Amino acid sequence: MMPRLLFLPLLLASCVPGSYTRDFVKETAVQPKPPTSVEGAWIGEWKSEVNGHEGPLWCIVHPNDEEPGHYDFRYRAGWGLVHFGDYTHTVEVAPDASGNLPLEGEMELPAGLGTYTVKGELTREEFKATYKSKADRGSMVLKRP
Hints:
The chain has helices at about 1-15, 20-30; strands at about 40-50, 55-65, 70-80, 85-90, 100-110, 115-120, 125-130, 135-145. Strands 4-3-2-1-8-7-6-5 form an 8-stranded antiparallel sheet.
C-alpha cells in the first residue's frame, strides 16, 4: 500500500508547470506560423541506440545574448513515467545562407558522466540530430508544436 501512496505525489509533482513549461508555452504562443527562423519552440522525441530507451523531448532555441555567435538549446527530456531533466547546451554556431542551423557541439556532463556531443541540423520546420555520450548514443527528432 505504501508504494502506491508515494507514487501519486511523485506523478502529480511531475505534472506541475515549472519555469520550463511556462517558457515553452509562451514560446509556442508567439512563434510565427509558418516559422521564419530556427528560433523558438520544438517538440519531439529522443531514442537510445544502446538500450532502446526513448522519451519525449522539448527544446527552446535562441541566440545567447551574452556570447555572440552562440545559441542556447534549452532541453527538457522525459523518460519512464515521472522522470524529467532540464538542461541548457550552449553551442557556437551560425545559421547558413538559407537560415538553417548546422548543429555540432559538446558539453561536459555532471557527476563524471563524460562528454556529451550532438550533431545535426535545424531547418525552420525540422530538427534532427544524433547525440553521443560515455554511456549512450542515439537520435533526436523534433518538429514545431
